[in-house]
Amino acid sequence: MNSAKALRSLYKSSPYSQTPLCDFLLPSFTQVTSRRDYASITTSSESPKTEPAPEALKSETTAKRRRPLTKEQQQFLDSALRVNQAGELAAVLIYRHQTPPITRSHPHLRPLMHHMYSQEAGHFSTFNALLAKHRIRPTAMYPVWTAAASTLGWVTGLMGREAAMACTEAVETEIGGHYNGQVRVLLSWLKEMEEKGEEVGEELRELVDTLKRIRDEELEHLDEAVGEGAKEARPYELLNRAIRSGCKGAIWISERV
Amino acid sequence: MSIFRLLQATCSKPPSRLYSSSNFVPSCGLSCGRFYHSYEHDRPPPFSPTEDRILSAALSHVPTHGFTTTALTQGARAAGYLDISTNLFPAGPFSIVNYHLVTQRLALAKDVTPARHDPIKIPTNINKLILRRLHANKAIIHRWQEALALLATPTRLPTSLRELALLSDEILFLAGSTDVTSVWYTNRAGLAVIYASAELFMTTDTSENFVETEEFLARRLEEGEKIKSFVGGVGTWAGIQAGGFVDGMRSKGVRI
Ligand SMILES: [Fe+2]
Ligand SMILES: [Fe+2]
After folding, report:
1. What backbone phi and psi angles, to 5 degrees, belong to B5?
2. Concatenated DSSP letters of B127-148
3. Angle at the Cα of A41 (from A36 to A43), degrees rounded to 5?
4. DSSP conformation letters of B41-90
5. Is B14 inside a domain boundary?
């Protein structure tokens, strides 16, 4: 009993729990990391107005953080940014494939579709740059998400305006909640650092700002979709539930592989 | 499915003999070059000062004694430690190999400024970086086949592959590659294969200043580029079959 426990803790601290074979060929589902502890709180539906606002956020200094981030924090950022990139890839593809049929039958939606598409393209390139900069691997499911998102965009686009908007609503609800959760985790770190009198550092401060901005844009998309008749889609309940659980599954997988 | 299971098992099963001896492994483990890379602090050194002194001294005995326990003992003595201190390294001579690999990879990262992203220059950058790394093997090249044998031992293989993966990642980063699509995986796997084969070739190279290795490497990289464009072609083709199909039909005037 005790030895099994010891073995597990040894395994957790062992650098071999992830071999390069897994990095290249099959990133492991079985990684034993504390990242899982975070997984449940990376989604939050709390209003942005209630989130803590540590003083450090407004600090004008451009000082570097002197203490290294903990391994758990590094792992959290690693998988969070990976999921975000995958999500934005999907968003870009969904809008790209929805746009032609939707704007054909509803020309007045052209500016809105274009506006949302270009914001998603901006998000996507932001996360691409962050991944390259912080040397984070993209999700191994990249080709799968590409195909799935294109199909989803194409199908809901063909189903008409309401279905397309219901798709946007469902996706943005999940994604918005996801960013919201991440912002909250980062803010709680900032608060903790502040209480310990540590320098937060430009990197984290900038990241919180980026995530907040993108979160707000996603929530705007959500409102716009509802305004354009998302709730009138038939069958709304089914579409909403199917797409949202699809998003949840995709997030779960991308955090891991 | 069974292959999937097998891979999964390889991934999740830690090699049991390895982790009782964490001494020869970088103390920072996975956080060296893994996970979110922050620019705001220095990374912890991979070896303790004692390990560093003994292993670097041992390495200087490798040209005469090879990657052997003798070199390790000589190293300990030269660094002013008792022979018994080689107990610090249960992995024995393999610790010297690992020390060489880790320190040379970190030296590359330290000495080379990451190139700005410029797609045209990436292949040349990669070529230069691999050569630079290979030249760091010069002093011990006549002993390197012993090292390769140690690296290929089943119990050491995970460590060896991991180190190779970290080197590929380092080289691509320094070369200015910012690709974060699925190409990320093929790039790293391909580079690892090319590097490993060039390294092996170099152990048999008797030419002046290893020009033959240089030519060998250039050929492999060129082939790699061809394969890559072929694979890229397949990827595009698959893309056309999936999402691109719709665009293709649309361009033909089909209202979908
Ligand atoms: Fe977005
Ligand atoms: Fe969005």
Report:
1. -60, -45
2. HHHHHHHHHTTGGGGGGHHHHH
3. 120
4. SPPPPSS-HHHHHHHHHHHHTHHHH-SSHHHHHHHHHHTT--GGGGGG-T
5. yes
Query: For residue B213, is it within any domain?
Result: yes
Six-digit token string for B11: 């991934």
Segments making up each domain of chain A, as ranges: 71-256
Q: How many separate domains does chain B show?
A: 1
* pLDDT score of A25: 39
Cα–Cα distance list, B62 to A37, A70, B73, B85, B94 (Å): 46, 37, 11, 18, 12
Cα B71 to averaged position of ligand 2 atoms, centre (Å): 61
Cα gap B171→A112, rounded to integer Å? 43
Residue B104 has pLDDT above 90, yes or no: yes
Tell if the CB–CB gap between A16 and B158 is shorter than 8 Å.
Answer: yes
Question: A residues 164-183 near B, CB within 8 Å?
Answer: none
Cβ atoms A91, A171 nearer than 8 A: yes
Enter the tokens of residue A25.
């060929």
Q: Which parts of chain A have pLDDT scores under 50?
A: 1-41
> Residues of A comprising the binding site for Fe cation?
88, 120, 123, 172, 218, 221
pLDDT of residue A161: 85
Closest-approaching ligand to the CA atom of A88: 1
Considering only alpha carbons, which residue of chain B is nearest residue A98? B256
Structure token pair of residue A79: 């998988």
In this predicted complex, what is the ipTM?
0.74
> Which residue range is the domain that position B150 belongs to?
3-24+96-251
Separation in Å, CA B152 to CA A15, A100, B56, B145, B198 = 19, 55, 22, 11, 16
Largest CA distance in chain A: 68
